[in-house]
UniProtKB/TrEMBL annotation, chains A, B:
ATP binds at residues 66-73. One of its GO terms (molecular function) is formate-tetrahydrofolate ligase activity. Belongs to the formate--tetrahydrofolate ligase family. This is Formate--tetrahydrofolate ligase.
Length: 558, 558
């Protein structure tokens, strides 16, 4: 049997009109802002705080991933299908893909196999324009900053060497990482060093995803710290009177997008901040929208649980007063082999010894989730080369920890392959096993919050602060930003800040190199190691393999 | 009585659902791709070549404009309302606005007063994402070029000093005009000089507007000349296998957008190429769509008739085999005063002497339109400070030339103020007075085509070619591009290439400084003087005055 590509599976599906999907949620056609027949924006008036409190939020996160990722998105979609199959009303709430990976190495982010959200082409391309709106709002602020440097009439005395705000473009384009701008004489601005980030790394994206309503969005945009004057005073976006125009550019982007899964269940896809230097999860508004419309809301957060779940719980849930009822930890036998010492070329070969040795990684994630007073369920996202012995070892070992581990065949079978997982999740929810508590209070001192995360979640012995980081802490204190949340920027490949320490590293300290401020998003970003904000294209970009015929049918998009 | 702002007038209008507008054109709801309730994309299958031949295309152009513009867009919209009022089925087909002017000085481009297309906020902001799609397609090609410079596996040996392709951003951002990219070491690309243009200046925009169908679009994208190898061979986008991925990004953007006028008549808004270095008019597909759906199609082209109409007729109509039945020449008393020698501070003061002296400018435009075997109608777009004597002089003088000049009160009265103009246009059409012929054949030599335009349209005695232009001509010949159309890049402020020569200059030659190639658009661009491709923001940007309240109601957008 020919194995179909993701896009072939998606194209073979006859989609329901989006008004029919909306009808399943009790939404009238007139309330929708349709974008073609299969996408719609949902008005914020549908958000209902009472229902948010009553309905059940499920986070899908993962063990420490291999570079290919362990399948959080497909498990999230598959689990939603499975929940609906066993009679629960469930919706999946996901991030929007960036165009960079679509044309680069990684591909899109609409799931895969028989667990996809559709129309996958649209979702992976411009979708409803949200990324573009973020990009334009970000770049308007950048243009206003450089215009102010040039301006004689309303000059804010900004020291161009201190400017923190970069332009963004939703493209893998390494040549824009470090540039000089404003060259060519007096008409062309003030020369200075600069650079572009990829759009999901914009603080505007982080803000859109933290905003609770339109006023909050506007206020946060005004609060963006863009740099300092020559006399060292902070300059904010509001000093450039930028926040209204930026909010105008985001007036549609703030509304969540409704699409469907391959099994015709509703899906909300909204926002897409980077998981390294930002929170890596969809908008608060989208999650609240899901909870206003459906009994079960399945959502995910980027990278492993030490990053994605930690930020989801301590930042997003704490800020929005969300109360997750269960956490699904995605594990793969492949990743367990990796953490048990399998070399790259051995990673797809059954090896019980490696799996046993790698289990410590999953075990630490299980312990971590329980520190939030939430009960985890382990989803084993299976591949064809997983052995019975390996899978059984994981199930039994989880059982010994009191955790249910369930095989999830979401990729090959969709909802039919995730019914067991769905039952396990429902059990945790219905037995009321979780009573979520964040790990820290936002009003603790910055250093203390960072240390709690490092010790409790990463298992570090302590935290070293580099000279630059110490200076940054002083600046944060001077600016009065001590009560911001902590958005850790660390490698996703290890619990530690050293990507080569696999498994469950012990006896290590992490080093905070510097600390950035996202004053609009209201978080502090401790940087542990080098963070990529502008990827490059590979030697043979994915774009070369893409085709579109005269009827508009696309192939080679993944 | 309080004079309402454009946005207040637009917001006071209760819009019809776009499906009702479509129904007026006989389009079923199911054929529409809706973008909210008031915008829709139209499928290309609605294009009907038989109807295109039978229906009537009217071009609205203008005398040589003052910096404020003489109101082609408002006259186009108003005329469409007027035609419908006198019982003709008419649609207006316009360009899409760029975000740059919206936040800069000029404001949006959705008409004004009581001649507007709505929803004006959406049209002036992201609209249906077409500009973003053009930007992404343009910038994907740019990223692929720099990636190829960096690549070891498929290196095309491109000489980075010869790269013609620039990135674009839809923002007035002077600091990006001249930049250096690829700095910071081996991981960050090859350092080189570069710059950003504003999105409407992208050749991708020109191509989108010249394409007749999706295959044509893809072929044209592949034909883009991006630079040369070290051994001086041309490199095209197809050498980077870029055209399919670029076309994929444009799959929705190729469909024209349907909106409505304040008087609930249909309007198509699609594409927006610069009027200086590109053709400055909407897409061929949109114009053909209009002609497939309506008896009368009113459209416009940027700047005065020496640029807009000349390019519209010689490039667009010739390429698409369109047959315009009448040309409306917009004149203002203000512009006539200007061309008659009124100083800037005198321009709004009645002065018959100035108007008489400036009439020569309008007269030359009238003569020019007749060179295409098309009968012009003059629309006098009136302002409150125009005197009866001035207006009467223009009407009578036009009459002496055999041309009907009609007062158009489109701004203050909408269709009610343009009924006379509509009658005048219908008369020209129904008496079958026009038998369009382009001014040159595309297969003539490049130099000859340029000379025909300069002599016949500008009234020049001849054309000087600078050394660089002569080298460019040799390159064009070597590349085999002699049969491309000519897309003149000249100041809009004068018939000549010297913006200070107002009125009807005589005894001058124009100088072609250099000649660019738009191989995908299939035109050659002779550059006469300096052309702006990236505007800057003013000292007080328009964005500062914009407000949006918590209900999403915008003010200060114009």
């Amino acid at each position: 049997m020919k194995v179909l590509s993701d896009i072939e599976i998606a194209q073979n599906k006859k989609l329901l009109h989006i008004k029919e999907i909306a009808a399943k949620l009790g939404i009238e056609e007139d309330a929708l802002e349709m974008y073609g027949k299969y996408k719609a924006k949902l008005p914020l008036t549908l958000i209902d705080e009472d229902k948010i409190k009553k309905n059940n939020l499920i986070l899908v996160t993962a063990m420490t991933p291999t570079p290919a990722g362990e399948g959080k998105t497909t498990v999230s979609i598959g689990l939603t299908e499975g929940l609906n199959k066993i009679g629960k009303q469930a919706i999946v709430v996901l991030r929007e893909p960036s165009l960079g990976p679509v044309f680069g190495i990684k591909g899109g982010a609409a799931g895969g196999g028989y667990s996809q959200v559709v129309p996958m082409e649209d979702i992976n391309l411009h979708f409803t324009g949200d990324f573009n709106a973020v990009e334009k709002a970000n770049n308007l602020l950048a243009a206003l900053i450089d215009n102010n440097l040039q301006s004689s009439c309303c000059n804010l005395n900004i020291d161009s060497r201190t400017i923190l705000w970069k332009r963004v473009i939703d493209m893998n384009d390494r040549s824009l990482r470090k540039i000089t701008i404003g060259l060519g004489g007096v008409a062309n601005g003030i020369p200075r060093e600069d650079g572009f980030n990829i759009t999901p790394a914009s603080e505007v994206m982080a803000i859109l995803c933290m905003a609770t309503d339109f006023e909050d969005l506007k206020n946060r945009l005004g609060n963006i710290l863009i740099g300092f004057t020559f006399d060292k005073k902070p300059v904010f976006a509001r000093d450039l009177k930028a926040e209204n125009a930026m909010a105008i550019l985001l007036k549609d982007a703030i509304q969540p997008n409704l699409v469907q899964t391959l099994e015709e269940n509703p899906a909300i896809i909204h926002g897409g901040p980077f998981a390294n230097i930002a929170q890596g999860t969809n908008t608060i508004i989208a999650t609240k929208m899901g909870l206003s419309l459906s009994n079960y809301v399945v959502t995910e957060a980027g990278f492993g649980a030490d990053l994605g779940a930690e930020k989801f719980l301590n930042i997003k849930c704490a800020a929005a007063n969300l109360n997750p009822k269960a956490v699904v930890l995605v594990a793969t036998i492949r990743a367990l082999r990796h953490h048990g010492g399998a070399k790259t070329e051995e990673i797809n070969t059954p090896n019980l010894h490696h799996v046993k040795a790698g289990f410590c990684n999953l075990e630490k994630h299980i312990e971590n989730i329980r520190k939030f007073n939430i009960e985890p369920v382990v989803a084993i996202n299976t591949f064809v080369n997983d052995s019975y012995e390996e899978i059984n070892f994981v199930i039994n070992h989880c059982k010994s920890l009191g955790v249910q581990a369930v095989v999830s065949e979401n990729w090959a079978k969709g909802g039919e392959g995730t019914k067991d997982l769905a039952h396990a999740v429902v059990k945790v929810v219905e037995l009321n096993k979780s009573h979520f508590e964040p790990l820290y209070k936002w009003d603790m001192p910055i250093k203390e919050k960072i240390e709690i995360i490092a010790k409790e979640i990463y298992g570090a012995d302590g935290v070293d602060f580099d000279k630059q980081a110490k200076l940054n802490l002083k600046r944060i204190d001077r600016l009065g930003f001590n009560d911001f949340a902590i958005c850790m920027a660390k490698t996703q490949k290890s619990f530690s800040d050293n990507e080569f320490l696999i498994g469950r590293p012990k006896n290590f300290v992490v080093t905070v190199r510097e600390i950035e401020i996202a004053a609009g998003a209201k978080f502090i970003i401790p940087i542990l190691g080098q963070m990529m904000r502008m990827p490059g294209l590979p030697g043979v970009p994915a774009s070369e393999e893409m085709k579109i015929d005269k009827n508009g049918v696309i192939s080679g998009l993944s």
